[in-house]
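Provenance and format

Records in this collection were gathered into a single text stream. Each protein contributes a sequence line and a C-alpha cell line. The two records reproduced below are adjacent in the stream.
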Amino acid sequence: MKNDYEIWERFKAGDKSALSYVYFQYFHSMFQYGIKFKDDPDFVKDCIQDVFIKLIKAGEKLGATENIRYYLFKALKNVLYKNMMKDRKTGFVTLEFDVPYALEEEISEKENASEREKALANALSQLSPRQREIIYLRFECGMDYNHICEIMQMKSDSARKLVFRSIKSLKEIIEGYRTTPVLFFFSFPQKHVF
C-alpha cells in the first residue's frame, strides 16, 4: 500500500482492499489503546467494530487524513466514551488510561526481573492516568503533539508540558528507587518503551 493519505482516500471511496488493509493494519494497535481505558476485551472489540461500521457508512463524507492511526484512535476514544455512557446508568463517565503497559505486565510476570526493570515498572505505575496516556501516545505510538492534542483535547503547550512533567516524574521515581543514572533506563529500543 501507499502512504496514509492515498490509502485513506481509497478507503473513503469504498475500496475493499483499502478497507481490509486499514482494518488488519490498525486493529491490534486500536485494541491495545482501547484496553487501557476499559479492561474488557469484548467491549473494546465491539467499540472497534462500531468505529469501522461508522467509518464505512460515512464513506466519502469522512475528512482527509495523513495519519490513519491518529484518526482511528480519536474515533475509538469517542466511541469508547459514548458506549461507556450507555452502559452507565448514573450519568457522567471519565475515560481514564488506567490499565498497565504491556511492559509492566511483562516485568511483573518475570521471576528474575532486573532492578532496572522493576524500577521502570514501579515508576510507570505511579503516573497519573493522563501522564500514562500521553507517554503512551508520544513514545509507544510515536504520535506528534498536534495529534496528541486532538486525541486528548488539550492545547499544544499543555501537551508538551505534560510530557515534560511526566518524564520528570519518571526520573524522580526511578532515582528514588536506585542510584543508576536515569538515562540508563531510557536506552532500550522504542518498541519496548512502554
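Adjacent record:
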Amino acid sequence: MTKKLTKSMKKKLKIISVLIVLLLIAGGGYYSYRTAHEKTAAQMPLQAVSAMVVTEKEIMPEASFVARIESKDKVGLRARVSGFLQERLFKEGDVVKKDQPLFLIEKVNFEANVREAEANYAKAQANAKNAQSQYERTQTLFKTKDVSEARLDEARAANESAKADVAQTKALLDLAQKDLEYTVITAPMDGKIGESKYSVGELIGPDSGVLATLVTINPIDAVFSVSENQLLVLQDEFKQADKAEVYFITSNGKTYPEAGQINFVDVTLDENMNTLKIKASFPNPDNKLIAGQYGRVLLKSLTPVKAIVIPMKAVQQDMTGSFVYVLTADNKVERRMIKRGTELADFEMTVNDGLQVGDKIITEGFQKIAPQMTVQPVFDK
C-alpha cells in the first residue's frame, strides 16, 4: 500500500515539474516578444509634418465682393400733354445732355390755346381797369350824397369781380403756356437714352406710359452686399485704417482704371438675406462701365496694420467651422478653432481669433495625423 502511494506521488510531481517547465518557457517567449516589439517600436520614426511658427505681419487690408453696376438715376420719360408725335430728336442709345430736346409734340393747338388765353387775359385787364374807374367815381359821388350807398356797394362788387377775372384769366394763360412748353420733352439730366417705344406720327399723352428710359452713366454705381460675418471681419481689419480705396474688377479680371468711393451704406441688414447693401460710385467718362455689368468690388486700405497671417493651406474646414492643427511643446497634435480673416495674395489669409504669435501650426501632412498624436515637425523656411 505504501509503495503504491509513493509511486502515485512521484507521478504527480513529475507532471507538476513538466507544467512548471512549460510555464517558464511560455513566459520567456512572451518576454522576448515584448522586448523585441518595444525595441521595434522605439526604432520606428515619428510621422514627419510640415509646420511653421505663427508670426505677425504688416499688411494692407483688402476685401472683395461680388458687385453689379447700376445707374445712379433712372428716369422714364413721359408725355404731360396729348398730341401727335411730330419729331424724335435723338438716336436710340445716344448720350444726351440735361435740357436737350428729345421729343416734339405737334404745337398748333397749344399755340392757339395760348393766343386765346392771352386775349381773354387782356380783355379781363381792360374790364378791371374800367371797373376800377367806375368804383372811384362812385366813391366821389357818394361823398357828395349824389348816389346811394347801395350804388356804391354795387360799384365795389363789380370792381372786385373784375379783379378776380384778371386773376382767373392769368392762371389760364399760365396753364396754356405751360402746356405749350410740355410739347417739347427734354432730358432732365445728363445720361444715356434707351429704346423709344413710339414712332413719329403716333398719338401720345399722359396715358401712353414711358416713351423712353434715360439713365445716368457718369458717375455710375457698383452695388454689392456684405453679410453680417463679413461686416464683422471688415470692422476688425479696417478699424485701424484711416483711408481706403475702392476699385472695380471686371469679369475678365482687369481692374477698372478709375478709383471709386463709398457713397451709400444701408442703415439696416436685409431681413431675408441678412446682408447690408453698399454702393460705391465710380467716374465713367468713357462709358466703359455699363448698367447690369457684373464684377467685383475691391476695398483696399491705405494704412498698414499688423495681423496674424498664415497660409490658406494650413486651414481646414468642417461642419463646425474653420480650424488648424497646433503643436504642443512636446509636439503633440491639437485641433484649434479659428476665426478667418481676409484672403490675401500668395494664398495667404489673416486670422482674427484663435492663434497667437509663437504658436506652431501644421501646414502639410494632414492625411496621416490625428489629435494627440506625437509627430516630427519640419519647419518651413
